[in-house]
Specification:
Length: 308
């Protein structure tokens, strides 16, 4: 093949690749329908259903889906704890169901099994031996993957609730200001949800959507108090429910709760600093102090060496 033909083929391949990359980049940058519509219907309850897979993902789901579902059922029978998992999924704000979470646990376990199996095969090729310990190690890696996904869910719950706790004083103050200005609790909640963002705002948006679909206001707040894992948010929901039922002043209660949360956060920060006092001294003792001593004595050492 002549150099001209080879260069033409290489140029054609490069041009086709660039066209494919540019086409995919344009498709990725194009806003989706849900991105354009959701900002105008954000007060409605989000659709908890996951989108249907397409392309290679749908093919993989058809081929491996039944096996994964049976494996997820087996994990459910062995591990158990379905009510706890459902509660943590709700507290984490996750759109997946319990069965989908079990499938993800199986997938994480299969990843751990594959890593352990690959290591076992490499070790068998270099040093053949009894395969039973390697099989036990693969099963242990599968169990570790399943438990790691469960631990990841607990970490997501803690992270989301920490964010909600940090947002609570501001949201409570905004609600108190709106109620003190003469708005109803539902109207104040609507205004705060539309003007704020964050995990607590999303939780209150779901609550507002349930109220607009016909659920009584007090029952909606009682449901929020029962489902949340934060005592502060539970007290807030109970206080709003009682205020709506009995007609008691709500602004003072919200101001007091916001002040209590800020004071609790300040105390927790002081306690963390006291617990980590030794760790805080490590950079001072091992980094700052040696540098200071070096700068103090280095000129003297240089002077002594020059005098000799």
């Amino acid at each position: 093949m002549s150099p001209a033909v080879s260069g033409a083929l290489l140029g054609l391949c490069a041009a086709v690749g660039l066209v494919l990359v540019a086409t995919r980049a344009v498709a990725i940058r194009r806003p989706r329908l849900e991105d354009r519509v959701l900002p105008y219907v954000r007060d409605l309850a989000p659709d908890r259903r996951t989108p249907a897979p397409t392309g290679a993902r749908s093919t993989a789901a058809v081929v491996f889906g039944p096996v994964l579902r049976r494996a997820a059922d087996g994990v459910e029978r062995v591990v158990g704890g379905a009510p706890s998992v459902r509660r943590r999924l709700a507290r984490a704000g996750s759109p997946i169901t319990l069965h989908e979470f079990r499938v993800q646990q199986v997938q994480w376990g299969l990843v751990g099994f594959a890593i352990a199996a690959a290591y076992g095969l490499l070790r068998t090729w270099t040093r053949p031996g009894n395969p039973l310990p390697l099989l036990v190690a693969c099963l242990g890696a599968f169990a570790c993957g399943v438990l790691l996904r469960d631990n990841r869910l607990s970490a997501q719950v803690r992270k989301r609730e920490a964010a909600m706790l940090a947002e609570f004083p501001t949201v409570a103050e905004l609600l108190a200001l709106n109620v003190a200005a003469g708005e109803s609790p539902v109207g104040a909640l609507d205004r705060v949800v539309r003007r704020s963002g964050g995990e607590l705002s999303h939780e209150l948006g779901d609550l507002l959507a349930r109220i607009r679909t016909g659920e009584p206001v007090a029952d909606a707040f009682d449901r929020l108090a029962a489902s949340t894992g934060l005592s502060v948010v539970a007290r807030f929901a109970h206080g709003v429910a009682v205020a709506i039922e009995r007609g008691t002043p709500l602004a003072d209660v919200l101001h007091a709760q916001a002040a209590d949360v800020r004071e609790a956060g300040r105390r927790e920060l002081i306690e963390q600093a006291s617990r980590k006092e030794i760790a805080m001294m490590v950079p001072v003792v091992f980094l700052v102090l040696p540098t200071t001593v070096l700068f103090a004595f280095w000129p003297g050492l240089i002077g002594l060496s020059l005098s000799y």
